[in-house]
Amino acid sequence: MKTTSIMIVGVGGQGSLLASRLLGTVLTDEGYDVKLSEVHGMSQRGGSVVTYVRYGDKVYSPIVTEGECDYIISFEKLEAARYAGCLRKGGKIIVNTQQIDPMPVITGAAAYPEDVLDQLKAKGFDIDDFDALGPALEAGSAKAVNIVLMGHFAACTDIPKEKWMAALQKVINPKFMEMNVKAFETGYGK
Amino acid sequence: MKKLLIGNEAVAWGLYNAGLGLVSSYPGTPSTEITEFLAKHDDIHSEWAPNEKVATEVAFGASLAGMRSACAMKHVGLNVAADPLFTLSYTGVTGGMVICVADDPAMHSSQNEQDSRHYAIAAKVPMLEPSDSAEAYAFAKSAFALSEEYDTPVLLRMCTRIAHSQCVVDIGEREDVPVKEYVRQPSKYIMMPGYAKLRHPVVEERTAKLKELAENCMYNRVEMAENREIGIITSGCSYLYVKEVFGDDVSVLKIGMPNPLPEKLIRDFAAQVKKLYVIEELDPILENHIRALGIEVTGKGLFSSIGEFSQKTIREAFLTEGIAVPGIPEAQGEAPAVPGRPPMMCSGCPHRGMYYTLVKNHITVLGDIGCYTLGAVAPLNALDSTLCMGASVSGIHGFNAARGEETEKKTVAVIGDSTFMHSGMTGLVNIAYNATNSTVIILDNSITGMTGHQQNPTTGYNIKGDPAAKVDLEALCRALGINRVRVVDPYDLKACEEAVLEELAVAEPSVIISRRPCVLLKYVKPKAPLTVDPDKCRGCRKCMKMGCPSISFKDGKARIDKTLCVGCGVCGQLCAFGAIGGNEDERCQ
To answer: How many domains are there within chain A?
Structure first.
């Protein structure tokens, strides 16, 4: 089996580490060889963050480079565009339509390209965009954006939903389980 | 038990299962999690030490007492611990001792890109270098036995990619290793000239024996392919990238012990291939060794000494060599150019109010290492220098000694609570003792922030979160010889300005403790988010000068992101038109 490569991208603090943990857990449970690479430290502080997840029969490199990525799961519009060059021909970008202004935009040094997803679509990118923040807030917290997105991604895979649910049980603090199940279900149905 | 582990957790399991009894470390990305995971075990002693030198000496003490011990640090931490390291090489160990050091190629969270392998060579101690979590576990687990058999501390080299990448590891059971009996050995452990002279030949003999080991050990291995046109000597994550590109179709000598390096193994491998390449991140350590053997090899001429590699690096390099590379990826298209997103201080970060005060008053700021280094970025642009842990406090003294009264009145040093404990105290003693009128601001956010919230001697809690002796910073600064010590709340801009201007004006050294716990700490409850009254907002952008990520500008007015704002109230103090409100709590109690 060919190695599948996924990138989870977003803004530090949006919860991409939990998303990658969920993905890593479900893929390991499915018996795949899995490699994951995360960012810790400096980049957590509101900076652009990227997590790589790769699975298959035998995976060597933990990272994904230009043209190799099958799925980009982006927590924010601008970040989807930033890493779009990593997408392989025929790959797919799942993106939360939330806009978080980076500091150069806040200071007025740069403008936020509001039409950035349309730009990508015009270039032939397969963009699956939807609002994940609304359902997350409905489920109980803006922090559940990660699980809404993972729910949506789960529906794109061949892995049965109950396997995802089992993985969710493993990685989520039981206190927040109800909220996260709701978030996952909404994302799955989007 | 099979589990998906980051490299650092795998190291922790390897050390723990090999009978580790004590770990002492100072946090530093990308090494921190090694100690955090070890601290989850209650049957060993774990601790955060004030700095890496202390940590290494604590581990030495435990080894002397007969216990298997370890410490972990980032690459620059090993500079701090270099003093004990070089002489530990002479004393050797009683209980096995492992020093974990994590390099940071590409400087994801560091001030330089130094290559720790130089230390192994210079201190003449063996170094192990895994390629992934599974090897990190195996190498860490084997390291104590290696340490005891060869009577040497062992360096275990990680790098960011391996420390923070995950793969499945089969974790075994913990081996019960009793603490050895303590036997006094003056000639082995008292390193004064008479005894040290006797130990140096022992070190050289040990290196000779380790070289023999390097020829045939679990760390170095040859993977011969049918294709002998090229052969690649590689190590660490570069090995993974080579295998990602060529799979099993290329002959590889994988080095897992970069010091000491084998001779015969390399010669035999080189003899079997037509053209030899060496692929290693950072400095040409393997390459220089291979060249010194008189073997022709292509290395840094093709692969950079700067930054990280990837499978793309390998593909591109071999294509320029005219070598067929399988599976070249085809991208959907180019990414559009978009504004950068650099890291920044969090919404409600207590450092922001103090930095705003310093920038507003055009103060020269000698900075230090921590979250507050982010004061250097726009729009605050608050810092003039950042060198290494503690250099703000030592540096301001030299700066003021060089320029005198001219700068004493308008220069401060800023340093965090944990960094002050690490290596700021000695610099402060020097200010008092050698008398410059320097002003030091301790940005006390009651935690070691940048590395992800580790306790330190000023927080009142230990690594387990249990109550511990708490250093009284005010009393400490006075005891170090500073008479003027005052505390301000950085959320209170007026108080900050008063304190800074008064302390700069006086003709004696002073310390301002800018104290507010980090907003990300669990016990800090955010207040209701603030709002901007669009009728009152004149669009002057003054609130945006402090660089709060919650505040943006739309349609000529400021607005506050409710999901990010923690209601700190600093922006409200900047607004001359009373446009920011919605949070009526007392802010500065």
So the answer is: 1
